[in-house]
Structures are given as C-alpha cells and as structure tokens.
Amino acid sequence: MSAVRTVLGDVPPEHLGVCDAHDHLFLGSPQLPGQELRSVPAARAELAAFRELGGGTVVQWTPYGLGRRAADLPPLSRETGVHVVAATGLHQAVHYDEETLGALRGRLAEVFVTELTAGIGTSGVRAGFVKVAGGFHGLDAHARWTMTAAAEAHRATGAPIAVHLELGTGAPDVLELLCGRLGVPPHRVVLGHLNRCPDPVVHRWVAESGCYLAFDGPSRAHHATDQRMPEAVQALAEAGFADRLLLGGDTTTAAARSTGDGPGMPYLLRRLRPRLEAALGTEVVARVLVENPARAFAVDWSPPGEEHR
C-alpha cells in the first residue's frame, strides 16, 4: 500500500493535507555564508505559522551534508502537528568540499538507499525522497553521477526524485537522462524551480512528459520572476496539467523566514493561495496543494532489492 515516508513514520497519502512541496527548515552551505538555517525555535515558529493557516505537510529538500538536522525534525513535527518529509540525495558539487565528495565515491546509491530505508545517520529518521541537482542549461559530470545514483535508489525503493533546476533551466536534459537513459518513470520525478525560468514552451513540454512541476517561489533570494509564477501556473492548469503542479516556498536563508525579513512558509497560504484561487478557483488550487503532493511523494515501500517502476 502506498504511503508517504515522514520523519514520524509512513502515513497514508490522504493524511498529508495542504502541502508545502518544497521548503527548508534547516540548511547550511558555504554558498550562503552567514545565512544558515540552524535555529530550532525559528523552525518551530515557521511550522506553527504554517499550521495556523491550515498547512499540513512540509517537504524539506535539504540533502546529505547540508545541515538537515534530522534528529530535530521528529520533535518539531510532533510539537506543531505538521508532517515533515526529509530528503536524502546530493546537491551541486559547489556545496561540498572534496573530502566529503571523495568519501561518497563508489557508494552514493548505497547511501541514498540506506537513508531511505534504515535512517539518516544515527537519528533513525528515514528520508522520503531523493534530491539531486542539475546545472545551468545542462548537466555536468557531478550531476550525472548523482542522478545515476538517484535512479539506482529509485529502482531499489520506489522513492521519488526531486531535482533542483539551476535558475529553472535544464529540464529537457534532466528528463532525457533520468527518464530516458536511466529509465525512471516520469511520474516519479519532481522538477523544481520552474518559476525561475518562466518559459511557457519548456513548461508545456515537461508537463507533457508526465513529471511533476514544482513552482517553489517566492523566495527573497530568487524573487526576480515571482510575479510571473501565478501566470505560469494558470497557463498550465488551463492547458489541462493541473494534476502535475506543486507549490512550495523554498526558504533557503535565515533572512527569508517570516521571523526575518522575508515571506517565509506562511506566505504560501496567506498570500499566494488566495491569488491563485481568484484565477483558478478553489477546487483546482486544492488539487495542487493537497492531491498532487499526496500522489507525487507516495510510494509503495518494499524491501531493498525489489525492482520498482
């Protein structure tokens, strides 16, 4: 039976409720010096504010080595009543030092599978999906390595694969590799950051592939195309792809939190949801926030070694 693997265990997809399909409670990278998301009280405040507005689930896209703080996620979920889905996976090479990457050579898929099935480190928290990343308008050797490992982990567990698209670009290359050469079913792939490159031709093309499209703004760090995001979502919904769409906030820095100077997690429901409901109607927006993420992140979790499609 399909279930979404949360930090408190597997739950039926219909229990997720309203979902922020791409966000971060904790995150640290040398690419964002001084802006690390490390505060447990701040994370709790974000989840509580999201819950107060009707939020039910947050999917954290923070992968291996970037400060996931997996052990802190279960108590936060219990205290706030918000389901949290954790990630395994690996980001772009620039986020890691050579020692970290070298230690993963030859065993990356094994690490992903272990974190999906046994737990992240000693926390006992199991990841619910794999997060990887492409490059600007293409894929480098690091991206191909991580995506190959992600595909292996998918075949072993059925876990969905979520992809950071650099500035929203490179989606055709990602799908060509993951779904073409590596055989991952499109409905098991979530493409993130499509709002950062509001190209309606590419959006339509990737939607036709059957993958999920995550429009995960606004964000203080990536606000240049925020005003185009509702327009892009509306165009895809009206073209018949409402069942492929996901929404998220992608809070990546301390300043972007609602406890800082940014919109934070509450903005998704406080401001963006009403704006989309005015354009698309409450039924379509409910599908995007509730039904679609429940399908996108639900897996028939079987023992490692069994082939998944």
From TrEMBL:
One Pfam family name is PTE
Instruction: Name the domain of life.
Output: Bacteria
Q: Which Gene3D superfamilies match?
A: Metal-dependent hydrolases
Q: Which InterPro entries match?
A: Metal_Hydrolase (IPR032466), Phosphotriesterase (IPR001559)
List the PROSITE patterns.
Answer: PHOSPHOTRIESTERASE_2
Q: Which UniProt keywords apply?
A: Hydrolase, Metal-binding
- Family note: Belongs to the metallo-dependent hydrolases superfamily. Phosphotriesterase family.
The protein here is known as Phosphotriesterase
**Organism name:** Streptomyces glaucus
